[in-house]
Amino acid sequence: MSLWPRLENLLPQVQKPARYIGCEQGAQAPTHGAGIVSWLLTYPDTYEIGLPNQGLQILYEILNERDDAAAERAYSPWTDLEALLRREKIPLFSVDTHRPAGVFDVIAFNLSAELTYTNLLNCIDLAGVPIHSTARADSEPLIGVGGHCTYNPEPIADFVDFVVLGDGEEVVGEITEIVREWKDTGRFDGSRRSVLRELAKVAGVYVPSMYQVAYDGAFIAEVTPRFADVPATVEKRTVADLADWPYPKQQLVPLTEVVHDRLSVEVFRGCTRGCRFCQAGMITRPVRERPAEQVRTMISDGLARTGYDEVALTSLSTADFSGIRQVIGETISDAGCDQVSVALPSLRVDAFTVGIAAEIQRARRTGLTFAPEAGSWRMRQVINKLIREEDLYGAVESAYSQGWRRMKLYFLTGLPTETDEDTLGIAELARNCVALGRRHHSSPSVTVSVGGFVPKPFTPFQWFGQNTVVELSRKIGLLRDDLRQNKGVQLKWHDPKATLAEGITSRGDRRLGPVIEYVWRKGGTFQEWSEHFNYDLWLEAMAASGCDVDWYVHRHRTDDEVLPWDHLSAGLHKDFLWQDWRDSLNELGLEDCRWTPCYDCGACTGYGIEHVVASTSPPAGGSQGTGVDLSQGGAVPVVLGKRPRAESNGDDPQPRRLVGVG
To answer: Model-level pTM?
Structure first.
């Protein structure tokens, strides 16, 4: 089965052969054979981007712990190796045992960015599998996808057999059992369509071929199941207790350089902050913390096993973790963890304190990154990122006072109701941060990173018409001109043309399948990479497929429009999202729902899970602080009262809990 004898002779001819050899510390040794369902977990980008992905590593371990499953990994080969594979007629392969992709029962992709869709098609084709699901034979692998992009999988519906919404830890076992029966007992009479119909009955699994779409002109009229036993709405899967899933236990340690080359430990999932632009915060609700003791154990065991000297505590807002100071302090104080650097990749400036800065500074310092997202308080109320200037300056001052010299600040531009004054506020914040740094250091630096805003499904901004390339470029130009003479501030920005391509795919429907296929067939792979991104090719593909860019990207949606993902559910009530959209236009902020009556977004009520936080009252200084008392340990469960969600009647909404208004 191994392709290694044929591959080995090709590797000296490619740029980074270590991408393809496997043999990492932590790699599994799967056993294939009768009664075993084989999975090829694939990341549709390069090895150095895909290997650190925690979702893929978690499923890799869980599947290999099962008696009826074997999981291996694959990544998109870079263009140099791809050319050699096609020339030599060698298919896509696993990096673990170099088995051909086409011999696996399931090829499952983790999709975290829409611009990897063309790589998805490329990997399926390299595996020797037809790219269209309708053209696949019973003997060919099932093609599955998961990840944040799959909350609107309609643009790739023609190419995938099944989609997993939400957490994968539990559902992969249920999928394995169905596929095993299909293989071994003939229960489904051997037909591919029969096994897909059975998969469609699994909670959290969406099978596009089991649904039909009716159109009313350019608009979707309805999406309906083809069979009575297929659910009309597919609900996401939610793991209620992270303590039951302490993965990865054997994090992969690569033999070559990768991004985020460090130990990563997930401290919680979900977010209650309610930032209206943030799809991850909306779709991963409710908040589920990992027990602090388990976090400490995962850190100490992981550092001892891997030899890493840096650990990243990952979540959507790590400083909100109830045991954050204790975990940091004990990690750094551990006698076996000398000179360990603790990275907090997702920091809210209103949750970063001198205490946290003091704990982290005891270890080797790295740069700090904060994400104010918008340049003015008005704009931050619109997006519900309720961070005042004094919050940012306090966090920056804390960091500089503890020895940091460089900061990164992330912002979005092209947000709803944004004015030039809001845009230029980004430059003003950066200048003021540098000035604070000069109180402590001679040459502090601030890197300002600006991305164009792309509205995402299952957020309050899913109805917003995205800014054009011309408008985004103009706003970047305003910032560039304003910061030209400012020493200590470096401006970086995302290409507005790539932002448009992402906008095409993020809220599209099934009619965009030919667009993605066109770009791929014309050589448009690795569209996430600036050296390969081809803006003209996307416009050409849209025109060739009869799809209008303005209609898909730049127009506002109405509340009565059927959205391509309305038959899927992230656990959020649509009328909650619409009300939040109306609130944003009225510049009304909503407090963190841990400290208010329930807004009834649907996340907790739909799954019977309540938030577990560290104290029963907001921290001193206001309700928009960390959400936890960082001086205390222990977690106290808080059951919040239910509150009827607001009903929209099409008029201006009645304000709910207001923050910073007046």
So the answer is: 0.91
